[in-house]
Design goal:
The protein has about 220 residues and is α/β, with parallel strands linked by helices. The protein is built from 9 helices and 6 strands; from the N terminus they run βαααααβαβαβαββα. It has a 6-stranded parallel β-sheet, with helices on both faces.
């Protein structure tokens, strides 16, 4: 293990556009279903629905948070609808599987998505068996990253010491609370929408482009 990470006991990974490449455009399908959901909800055209969607995303952290606040949307219904997508854009990642298998310590997923969808994506990648716990939007009491509540709840539930934890994310703004709590932060700079929003050098400890490749590098050769 790379000496810079020898102290890490708990690894916390984001999922979408993080464990798989952002250029797979899987999230585009979710994005489209969000727009269609808002069209039906508000009886508006696609252009207005898109405007409302992005307004809530940028203003409330997630589209869901804004819709719940302003339109009393049922989160279970919304999440089930927008994540009902084909997953053929996600492929098995043998390098990631091998790296996560070798990685010492506990492995967590912290996602603003819902658990049912997240496990399906992890299984498509082939890494579901390597994940110790999946912390979704409902486990975070519907408070999305980058709100602090979900991070604290994950740390408290599993007695994670931030000083020996690393968080891996494609969104810099979601690393800010992790850094404030004392975690080592790793930014997956792979072209995610607004991935660099709020970038400050003090927030990002390490900048990478591919999680599997990075893990392979820090783990070194097997003896």
């Amino acid at each position: 293990m790379d000496s810079r990470f020898a102290h890490i006991r708990d690894w916390i990974f984001d999922l979408d556009n993080c464990l798989y490449p952002a250029n797979s455009r899987l999230f585009d399908l979710i994005d489209q279903r969000m727009t269609a959901y808002i069209e039906r909800l508000l009886d508006v055209d696609a252009t207005e629905a898109r405007r409302v969607q992005k307004m809530h995303f940028h203003g409330s952290g997630t589209t869901l948070a804004g819709l719940m606040k302003h339109h009393n949307v049922d989160p279970h219904h919304f999440m089930g609808e927008v994540h009902d997508i084909p997953l053929d854009r996600v492929a098995r990642d043998d390098r990631l599987i091998t790296a996560l298998t070798r990685l010492p310590g506990r492995k967590f997923i912290h996602t603003n998505g819902n658990a049912d969808y997240a496990w399906k994506v992890l299984d498509r990648l082939g890494v579901g068996a390597e994940i110790d716990h999946l912390h979704d939007i409902f486990a975070a009491d519907l408070t999305p990253k980058p709100e602090l509540h979900g991070y604290r709840k994950l740390l408290d539930q599993f007695e994670i010491d931030p000083a020996s934890a690393a968080m891996v994310e494609d969104m810099v703004r979601n690393l800010a609370p992790a850094k404030a709590l004392g975690m080592t932060t790793v930014w997956v700079d792979n072209g995610s929408e607004r991935g660099n929003h709020g970038y400050e050098e003090a927030i990002v400890d390490y900048r990478i482009t591919d999680v599997g490749e990075w893990l392979e590098t820090i783990l070194g050769d097997e003896e």
